[in-house]
């Protein structure tokens, strides 16, 4: 009969005990990290250095910070700027794996969270959420619309070009100035210039005919340069480096030649 190996038993038992202790300690540490971070994220910091310290401590704990970050993002009792920080850090710690969770916040009722999610997903170069970005092109928040447009433009999401072009006809992108209580002529907000440039960068062919007509009219003089640049990107042709009159003739001739062809 083979002798029982007490030494092996002792070593095995020691290994199991150590493994158990390590598991328990890891669990305790993770729980402690969460509690400490949640307390710190509850503080409404006014100093940039304090925010920097909060970021550094969060990153120091790495994956153990994730539960706390998720709690901060989901709970409105935390200050908005801390929820913003938590969103960015979750993306930094988890990388691409955080994208599906971040995408849920694109529909969050708080514009700060929609904005933070957009910027974090752009930093992560998430191209698979073009439809979600396009949805936010009609958001009630001007800066959210602007950021959604920037996501689409920077990531070159050509499938979203029709929704970008539609922004030209959205009343939210215009404003009504007043003088002495009297309403003046409706004005285009600056986002319209970005829209014009973006359809060019996305090479949205369907916008070409409309842009050529628009560039002929004086009422669009405030976006003349943007239309000229956009047409150049869409057609691959560049108008003369002279005055606006020569440029208008150039694009008109191009429209005629396209019709003849």
Report on the structure:
It is a single chain. This protein is mostly helical and about 260 residues long. Helices cover about 65% and strands about 5% of the residues. The strands form 2 sheets. A two-stranded antiparallel sheet has the order 1-4. Strands 2-3 form a two-stranded antiparallel sheet. Mean pLDDT is about 90; it is low at about 5-10 and about 10-25.
Give the key terms.
4 strands, 261 residues, mainly alpha, single chain, 13 helices, two-stranded antiparallel sheet
Biggest sheet features: 2 strands, antiparallel
- Taken in chain order, the helices and strands follow as HHHHHHHHHEEEEHHHH
- Approximately what portion of the residues adopt beta-strand conformation? under 5%
How are the strands of the largest sheet arranged?
A: 1-4
Low-confidence stretches: 6-10, 12-27
Radius of gyration: 28 Å
Any idea what the shape is? elongated
Helix content: 55-70%
Ends distance: 98 Å
What is the count of helical runs? 13
Please state the average pLDDT score: 89
Count of DSSP strands? 4
Indicate the structural class.
mainly alpha
């Amino acid at each position: 009969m083979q002798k029982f190996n007490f030494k092996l038993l002792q070593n095995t038992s020691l290994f199991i005990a150590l493994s158990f202790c390590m598991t328990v300690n890891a669990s305790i540490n993770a729980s402690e990290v969460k509690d400490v971070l949640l307390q710190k994220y509850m503080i409404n910091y006014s100093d940039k250095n304090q925010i920097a310290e909060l970021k550094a401590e969060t990153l120091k704990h790495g994956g153990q910070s994730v539960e706390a970050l998720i709690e901060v993002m989901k709970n409105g009792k935390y200050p908005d700027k801390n929820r913003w920080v938590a969103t960015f850090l979750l993306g930094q710690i988890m990388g691409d794996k955080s994208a599906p969770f971040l995408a849920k916040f694109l529909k969050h009722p708080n514009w700060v969270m929609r904005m933070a999610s957009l910027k974090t997903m752009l930093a992560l170069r998430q191209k698979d959420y073009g439809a979600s970005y396009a949805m936010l092109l009609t958001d009630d928040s001007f800066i959210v619309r602007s950021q959604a447009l920037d996501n689409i433009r920077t990531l070159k999401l050509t499938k979203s070009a029709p929704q970008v072009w539609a922004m030209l006809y959205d009343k939210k992108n215009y404003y009504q100035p007043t003088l002495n209580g009297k309403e003046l002529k409706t004005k285009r907000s600056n986002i319209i210039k970005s829209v014009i440039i973006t359809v060019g960068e996305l090479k949205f062919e369907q916008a070409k005919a409309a842009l050529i007509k628009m560039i002929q009219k004086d009422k669009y003089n405030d976006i003349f340069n943007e239309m000229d640049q956009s047409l150049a990107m869409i057609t691959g042709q560049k108008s003369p480096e002279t005055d606006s009159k020569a440029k208008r003739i150039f694009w008109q001739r191009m429209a005629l030649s396209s019709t003849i062809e």
